[in-house]
Amino acid sequence: MSKIAIYPGTFDPITFGHIDVIKKSLKLFEKIIVAVSDGKNKKYLFDVDERIEIIKKALFEDLKLSRKKITVTSFTSLTTDLCKKYKSNIILRGLRAVSDFEYEFQLAGMNRKLDNNIETLFLMSDIENQIISSKFVKEIVKLGGDIKKFTTKSTIISLKKKYE
């Protein structure tokens, strides 16, 4: 298989933790598919189209990352089906703390049972970004706090507009 990796998540919104995982994975793979989940079982602050636009602005405008190496798309299917669609056998997952590991380990095991050709690669964000979560970023901005250390300028603008 080619060196394409799928990075699935909700990205509601994208944070520097997510961006660390993307930057690290660009050193390992030719192409990264940032796959934005549109699962209906979760309540999102931003709808899927807004999240895609926020991610694109963060990656391509704020950070000037390569559009040739990163594709941002939505999905409602199993991640393993997304892997087949993009001819990838790698799922990327970010880990922040030990508390993430149990869930991620189970998820990786289930994906492996669904398709034994798929490997899950865990990447950790840099230490200063390991405490960041989208949930906390939303709560801080909602309460009027400063989130410059947690996400990009364009994402901050999108968050502030949502809470105005």
- The largest beta-sheet arranges its strands as 3-2-1-4-5
| Secondary-structure arrangement, i.e. CATH architecture | 3-Layer(aba) Sandwich
Question: Total domains, how many?
Answer: 1
Radius of gyration using CA atoms only: 15 Å
Low-pLDDT windows of residues: none
Question: Would you give an account of this structure?
Answer:
There is one protein chain. The chain is of the alpha/beta class. It has one domain: Rossmann fold, CATH 3.40.50.620. Helices cover 43% and strands 19% of the residues. It has a 5-stranded parallel sheet with strand order 3-2-1-4-5, with helices on both faces. The mean pLDDT is 94.
List keywords for this structure.
single chain; globular; Rossmann fold; alpha/beta; 164 residues; five-stranded parallel beta sheet
In short:
Helices cover 43% and strands 19% of the residues. By secondary structure, it is an alpha/beta fold. Strand 2 (31-37), helix 2 and strand 3 (70-75) form a beta-alpha-beta unit.
List the topology elements.
Elements: E1 4-9, H1 16-26, E2 31-37, H2 48-62, E3 70-75, H3 79-85, E4 90-95, H4 98-114, E5 119-124, H5 134-142, H6 153-163
Parallel strand pairs: 1-2, 1-4, 2-3, 4-5
